Prior knowledge:
Layout: H1 3-27, E1 51-55, E2 68-72, E3 84-87, E4 107-111, E5 120-125, E6 138-143, E7 151-155, E8 168-174, E9 177-183, E10 188-192, E11 203-207, E12 213-219, E13 228-233, E14 244-246, E15 266-270, E16 279-284, E17 301-303
Antiparallel strand pairs: 1-2, 2-3, 4-5, 5-6, 6-7, 8-9, 9-10, 10-11, 12-13, 13-14, 15-16, 16-17
Amino acid sequence: MTGTTARARRTAALAAIAATTVAATTLSGGTAQAAPLPVPQDINGDGYSDVVVPAPRATVNGLDWAGAVVVLYGSAKGVSAAKRAVITQASPGVPGAAEAGDAFGASSAVADLDKDGYADVVIGSPYEKVGSAKAAGAATVLWGSKNGLVSGAALPTVVEPDGQAGRDVAAWSGPDGAQVLVVNNNTTTRLTGPFTRAGGAASSYLHDETGWMRSAAYGDVNGDKAADRVLVTGRMGGLSGGYAFVNSTNEAHPWAHRMQGGDGLTSVVGDVNGDGYGDLVLGDPDEPGTVEGLWGHTGGAVHV
Length: 304
């Protein structure tokens, strides 16, 4: 792709996202006031963390691969299947409609995007048809509340045939505000709050500096209480996994932000060793000697 073509494509995509963002913001009655979230991933505000389990291959009303997410609500005894909610695009308050092959729930992320004290859930459905664009993909936010996830909104994303927006998502909420990353085949959309209940974001940024995309994550890797973002590409060269970039932008040379010493296809940030800093964990699920895992690791591999 030439530089001129890439710039034109990026400009058009940004214009489309911006138009959607403005429209969504206009429809909303405003943004909720900031409130603390004392327990991470507490969707219903009962003081216990909840767990979101993806089920993108779930059959819904006879539709194969329509997809679902299962929320296991926490309690003093932990989580169990006895206290759960199965959410699909056929559920009340969920945008869109359940359709065969959408893979709703292929990705998910949890953060308090509207700062109302309840954790919200961002869900990707990478094979959703949008207008005439097949497999354009979509991202949905379901708002946390005392009654759980009972309402939601579509988030603005790039719409292009086979774009597969939502193949991965990441979300962050901290003292520096709220952000969402929506990964598609070739780019990643970064949405920055405040977010409105209609799904509008204050601003958007289209990352296309890394090329072919696979995964994204948020965390605080340097202890400054601000969001650090991780973008991971698909397989590159002789690597089993892809390259990982930390806080890269289109304006700076991406290779200056490439992490050395590891590769992978999935990513997450967490404090593995308890030192107060987020650690980047990259997963490589492929087995060697297969078409998908030509350079894989026996049993898969994890890099920290």
